[in-house]
């Protein structure tokens, strides 16, 4: 459940920061009359994200009656989720320093166009995070059918993110957002490696990939699946005591290079800007009196 909590926290905070930037800009610009349009756009984005999540679940559980079709669908969504996670964490690392200025510029243009443009701008700024969250959550929570724990953990992560965002906006909280996104990004890479491993297993279950019975190793006697720590490793990173050869290769082939690339020291001026100033810029963007 920690993995789904982390997903909700990370994605929720990104969306909250975006909304905070928009609201702060309107308040400073004496354009509070446009705030209802912003909230309308945000509400529509949330509703569409929930609908998208329901549609994925409905497709898997109802529309696909054949077992192999369901396994194939889950495998494809797992791979898509890994792509979105990878893109999201590297995008945030690169763009966080300039996101406030870009959003303000786009909102200025939207204000000149009219109310619908403001609502549309807010909608587009939030809907990406919502759709990503729905897809990643579905992939991360596979195997927990009938268990409400992952959903509650996701909601808890989103609520935590909203509280942090509100406190940042009100200047009641100071956190180093650069370190926050670095640590959560690294953890999400390991979560994504587990999702990819699960996807490979689903491809094997569907008969698309071979080797379903070819185990890389079996340490069940050491890592008892019934223990709490084994359940924790499986739930967070899909580390299991008896993985197949292809699952193991996929986990290592993704986690090692992506994690090394993400955590590599900044060697250029541009790299230093995007890794060391992220927190300062994002925090300043969400604090109207310091903007």
How are the secondary structure elements laid out?
Blueprint: H1 2-28, H2 35-63, H3 67-113, H4 115-140, H5 149-169, H6 177-205, H7 228-237, H8 245-263, H9 269-276, H10 278-285
Helix pairs in contact: 1-3, 1-4, 1-5, 1-6, 2-4, 3-4, 3-6, 3-9, 3-10, 6-8, 6-10
Commentary on this structure:
This protein is mainly alpha-helical and 291 residues long. Helix content is 77%, strand content 0%. It has ten helices and no strands. It has helices at 2-28, 35-63, 67-113, 115-140, 149-169, 177-205, 228-237, 245-263, 269-276, 278-285. It starts with a helix and ends in a 6-residue tail after the last helix. The relative contact order is 0.17.
The helix content, as a percent range, equals over 70%
The biggest beta sheet reads: none
Question: Radius of gyration from the CA trace?
Answer: 21 Å
Structural class: mainly alpha
Low-confidence stretches: 268-291
Order of helices and strands: HHHHHHHHHH
Record keyword descriptors for this entry.
single chain; elongated; mainly alpha; 10 helices
